[in-house]
Amino acid sequence: MGGESSGKGRRLRRVDFRRNRQAPARRKHWQVPADDDQAAEPLNREAVRAKGDLSRRRTVTEVDSDRPGDGSGWFKGIAIAVRGQFVDVEVDGRVWPCTIRRILRTLLIRNRSPVVVGDEVAISIVADAAGVVNEGVVEHVYPRRTTLTRCDGKKTHVIAANVDQVLVITSIREPMIKPHLIDRYLVAAHAGNLPAAICVNKVDLDPDPDDETAEILTRYRRLGYAAVATSAVEGTGLDELRSLLAGQVTLLAGQSGVGKSSLINALEPGLNLKTAPVSLASEKGRHTTTTAVWLKLGFGGAVVDTPGIRALDVAMVPINELEMHFVEFVDRIVDCKFPNCVHIHEEGCAVKAAMESGEIDESRYASYVELFYELSDVKRAAYE
Ligand SMILES: Nc1nc2c(ncn2[C@@H]2O[C@H](COP(=O)(O)OP(=O)(O)OP(=O)(O)O)[C@@H](O)[C@H]2O)c(=O)[nH]1
Ligand SMILES: [Mg+2]
Ligand SMILES: [Zn+2]
What we know:
Layout: E1 4-7, E2 10-16, H1 35-40, E3 57-63, E4 75-83, E5 86-91, E6 94-100, H2 102-107, E7 120-127, E8 133-141, E9 147-152, E10 155-161, E11 165-171, H3 179-191, E12 196-201, H4 212-222, E13 226-229, H5 238-245, E14 249-253, H6 260-267, E15 293-296, E16 302-305, H7 327-333, H8 350-356, H9 362-383
Parallel strand pairs: 6-8, 11-12, 11-14, 12-13, 14-16
Antiparallel strand pairs: 1-2, 2-3, 4-5, 4-7, 5-6, 7-8, 9-10, 15-16
Helix pairs in contact: 3-9
The protein binds guanosine-5'-triphosphate, magnesium ion and zinc ion.
The site of guanosine-5'-triphosphate (GTP) has 26 residues, from helix 6.
């Protein structure tokens, strides 16, 4: 190590300079430095291994006092909100506003999601010019256990990392329940290898809860999904919802206005998330939640509240794999007469036969057809 100086609890140290345009940007996982490597050189842990000899050095500030953690220089936390290049990182219950180390941004420039909500990150705490310690820098992103992505034209965005399950939230009214949207979210969750559960909210608005709500719940429970009926305003079903969420990190997916934020508020009143009435004329939500945010739950676990966009898109599902994401189709596909049956117009299709005999729900089959045509268009567009 080069020269060292200290003052006000800060130390300036000369450390190895890492070149910031190197190859392994698009590896599936970040490389994690070996543990003993970290112990030997706590300041020098840029997540990516350099290739050649390193000649230049740069100066970084290390703060010794007033910090949480174990004193090793970096602190592990969770990215709970991301706004462009700014990330809020929670470390042991305290939230640190952070910037992202330039090398992380550069390396993942094509990926465009160097840090996303739910990422486990290592941050260094930095002092500003006046020596005030209240900000951090994201130095490292740990390998993501899971990722949920969304397609936007040709680009893929990661919505959230390290989520254990997806809760698909719909409302029975205002906005009106849309079973095809539930199926779309289920396909996306399944394609992301995540278990999914369903929540039908606003049951207080259901004119006949034993009928429509019950029918939806039964439909999805038969397929093996957990399904709960709730009312955020009347408190119905909240215990059941709580036990679905406890101990898990759950992404809340669903249209704007279905009550995602209201349900979290009902479970954790202290959070006081912003909510807004849906427009009476259009029955559309007002996109009250604008960015994804990771929230710790008092009873264990966390939720990621997302803006009510079609947060999960299925465009990344290869069309020939769509059938695999309809759980009730899977066992039947082997009985289709033609091995390349797409279950739309073929003779001897076991899926259609099961639908006609009532074993497969018509609405689920209709969702499959809708998504199949949508993906055919995507495929066609890719060749045009
Ligand atoms: N009647 C009734 N209204 C509800 C219920 N849950 C939420 N609402 C209302 O529905 C409106 C929308 O709720 P939000 O929680 O903002 O919906 P959201 O899903 O978070 O919407 P975005 O943030 O826009 O995605 C608010 O006026 C809530 O008060 C419910 O169970 N019953
Ligand atoms: Mg919201
Ligand atoms: Zn078939």
